[in-house]
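User:
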Amino acid sequence: AKGVKPGQIAIVWLLAKGPDFGIDIVPIPGTKRRTYLEENVAAADITLDATEILGLDMALTPDKVSGPRYNERTMSLVDR
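Assistant: Predicted structure:
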């Protein structure tokens, strides 16, 4: 609804969560393309209100996250 990318929302949400844990959170997103870097930097200009943060909190509870972190091929490369 804000006309922004999911990655930008993720960055802004993480930044907003820092005070909840009493720490400074510094997201370090990886990127392979300049356009993604520009999107990540532009996230600094996005704000989420309390209702939006709560909505994300409710949608992202551990019990609602499912499936493997990586596909089988990528998992075979972990801890090599």
